[in-house]
Amino acid sequence: MAELHLVQMEKHFLYLPLYYARAKNFFGYLHGHELKIVDSFEKTDESAFERLMTPHAGGNEKIAFALADPACALMEPTRGDRTAAVVGGLITTAAFWAVDRGKRRLIYLRDMSKFDKVIAFKNGSTSYGIATRILRDASKSNDNIIPVDPGRELQALTYSKPGTVALTPDILKLTHLLRAHSEYNIELSLSTTPEYSNVLVTSILSRRDIMDKYPEFTIGLLQALQKALTLVRMQDEDVIHFAHEHFNSEKEVVRIALDTARMAQVYPADLEVTQVNWNHAARACSDARGIPFDEAAEEHAVQLFDSIVEPYRHFSRKSWRLVLSRWGDAETNSLPTLTKRAIASVATIATGGVLASVGGWWLLSAVIVLASLAWALDAVLLKLGAGILQRRMMASIWVLTILLVSVGKLMSWGADILVGMSLTALVGAIGIIAQYLYTKGRVDA
Q: Quick count: other Cβ atoms within 10 Å of Cβ 238?
């Protein structure tokens, strides 16, 4: 069993799909492998990317994926004999909100030049790059950036002087702040600006050697994240309950935060990285570094897309199709599922005793044969990777058949009728397996 690691900048509310997938065992899609989530050393995107691209450094041996700004791969797509791979996009707009005291009614990014200081994360983060762009447009130096660790930006704002604005992606803490202190206000949602709308800011990064070695693992990871992402976008009640416990926040605050994310279109419908997302990310990266995004820069971005994005887009496309076709329980081999099976087995034995005493041993034997056939066909579906929908259909057929055979025997129906019902159930079960294999073949294609 392989254990691989995914490195994140730091625990972050907007990474909720990742945490929810882990908590709900959607990583059961990894087919026996394990995934562990670890943090970067410096709490920046560049630090997370550094750990991904240096597998021989201490503590990085198992790191195969990273959640980070794709600007890291744009600036350094290769390192030695290792090449980055962009396999998905988790956040496809600039999920940052500019917060200060008062109401300035900002509309454009250039309007933020009115502020004297900008609180942002440390150099090497998306936040710092945005702050650099804001100050450069105002002809101010980066000395006016107040760098803080993630999660400290709003606290720093409460101690700052007037004329200071904080860039925060933490909509959960921001919601708490706005509810508790009426003097604070969201001046601008950066997702509404032309510069940072529809920009890939958090991607699922890996390396080419990992893609070659663990293709099924990659599809399983993306499938788990896609399912969790869909439920987060739906603001499913179980997601809200999980976030309430995981982040120790009131459910109403979680709902407001997720609704804020929805209005800002933080999460995409699927994980596939598009050419538009990538080009906008490349432009934002150039702007943050003060490099003109001219024709040569755009051509370079297209070439990188063709080399480190396009070869891996089929992973996210396939994961999306699999989620649609197998929407259901991924916990097929989990302890709760095995416990349920054990209880079902005990119940079956007890039922057999009742049938033997009421209907005779012939009926018990028939039920045992039918139940064994049902379990065998369910095992076939499980081995093929079928979802809960197909398995429930299979179970329904055999439960109904067993009930009809039992009733028929007790009512002295003819043996030909009982055998006919059993054969009909068998044909129906084979039909379910055939239909699943046909659907799976189309998905794989």
A: 11
β strands within 125-270, DSSP E: 145-148, 164-168, 184-189, 202-207
- Say if CB 119 and CB 167 are below 8 A apart: yes
CB atoms within 10 A of CB 6: 23
The Cβ-side half-sphere exposure at 135, using a 13 Å CA radius, reads 23
The model's pTM is 0.73
Query: 237-246 vs 251-263: helix axis angle to the nearest 10?
Result: 120
**pLDDT tens, residue order, the chain (445 aa):** 678 999 999 999 999 999 999 988 887 767 667 889 999 999 999 999 999 999 988 889 999 999 999 999 999 999 989 999 999 999 999 889 999 987 777 888 888 888 999 999 998 888 998 999 889 888 899 999 999 998 899 999 999 998 899 999 999 999 999 999 989 999 999 998 988 888 999 999 999 999 999 998 999 999 999 999 999 999 999 999 999 999 999 999 999 999 999 999 999 999 999 999 999 999 988 888 888 889 999 999 999 999 999 999 999 999 988 887 766 544 444 444 445 555 555 555 555 555 555 555 555 566 666 666 666 766 666 656 555 556 666 666 656 666 666 666 656 655 666 566 666 666 666 766 666 665 555 444 4
Taking the C-alpha atoms of residue 77 and residue 84, their distance in angstroms, rounded to an integer, is 5
How many Cβ atoms from other residues are within 10 Å of residue 149's Cβ? Answer: 13
User: DSSP code of 98?
Assistant: E
Residues β-bridged to residue 7? 38, 66
Q: Are 103 and 189 in contact (CB under 8 A)?
A: no
DSSP annotation of 113 reads G
Determine phi and psi for 302, rounding to 5 degrees. Answer: -65, -40
Q: What is the DSSP string of 32-88?
A: T-EEEEEE-SSSSHHHHHHHHH-TTSTT-TTEEEEEE-THHHHH-SEETTEEEEEEE
Count of CA atoms in the C-beta half-sphere (13 A) of 330: 25
Task: Give 55-59's long-range contacts (Cβ < 8 A, gap of 24+).
Answer: 55/82, 55/207
Residues 6+ apart with CB under 8 A from 382: 332, 391
Lookup: tokens for 229: 């992402």
Pair 101, 165: CB distance under 8 Å: no
Closest residue by Cα to residue 74 from 288, 327, 227, 342: 288
Q: Name the pairing type of β-strands 145-148 and 164-168.
A: unpaired
